[in-house]
Amino acid sequence: MKLANTHQTYGWVSIALHWGMALIILGLFPLGLYMTELDYYHPWYQLAPHIHRSIGILLLLLLLFRLCWRVISPPPQPVGGDSRWLQRIAELAHWGLYLLLLAIALSGYLISTADGRGVDVFDWFTVPALIPGFPNMEDVAGAIHLTLAIIMMGLVGLHAMAALKHHFVDRDRTLLRMFGRSHQQQPGTHTLVNYYSKENI
């Protein structure tokens, strides 16, 4: 598998960024909900927010790298038979996910720096508090953070449904390309079950 994308395939960098960020997003959301229910005496009261903040900053760095990589190595051309307007909607949805991630990261940063302290990332480095505070900043940013996170999960669900639609209804290589499969599948052989058959292990 190549490092960069081609007109027909994704390179391993894009594939790793896609699945790595997807796992992080799916992990951060339930962790964020969980930590809001903890009381002061719970052993995870301080640890859970620390993990959430740290991984959130790392996710932001991955997002910035992903956007730069998208410019350096543009994604391959669509392989499905969708109309131009459906392809346009899919492209807008991708950029909507990127913008949502940026907004969620910014609101999380405002929550974490509301007291004037920087964000400590796993004791590796600290992101300083650079934005001046405003009244009720933590509460306002928290409400925005939660709302955007819920919208994000809705878009992620739609994104997943669209990928499954391409695979099981349109029967094209859209989903398999993100698993590193580059060649054209024969009829009846392009399901995920077949992808994990013995000959592919």
In short:
The protein is mostly helical and 201 residues long. The chain is 60% helix and 3% strand.
Main sheet makeup: 2 strands, antiparallel
What fraction, in percent, of the residue positions are helical?
A: 55-70%
What Rg do the Cα atoms give?
20 Å
**Contiguous runs where pLDDT drops below 50 for at least 5 residues:** 184-201
General form? elongated
Q: Helical stretch count?
A: 6
Helix and strand sequence? HHHEEHHH
Based on the model shown, name its key terms:
single chain, 201 residues, mainly alpha, Fumarate Reductase Cytochrome B subunit, two-stranded antiparallel ribbon, 6 helices, elongated
What can you see in these coordinates?
Helix content is about 60%, strand content about 5%. Strands 1-2 form a two-stranded antiparallel sheet. The chain is mostly helical. The model is unreliable at about 185-200 (pLDDT under 50). The chain contains 6 helices and 2 strands. The protein has a single domain (about 10-200), classed as Fumarate Reductase Cytochrome B subunit (Up-down Bundle), CATH 1.20.950. A hairpin with a 3-residue loop joins strand 1 and strand 2. The longest helix is centred in the last third of the chain and has 34 residues, at about 135-170. Helix 1 packs antiparallel against helix 2 (about 45-70).
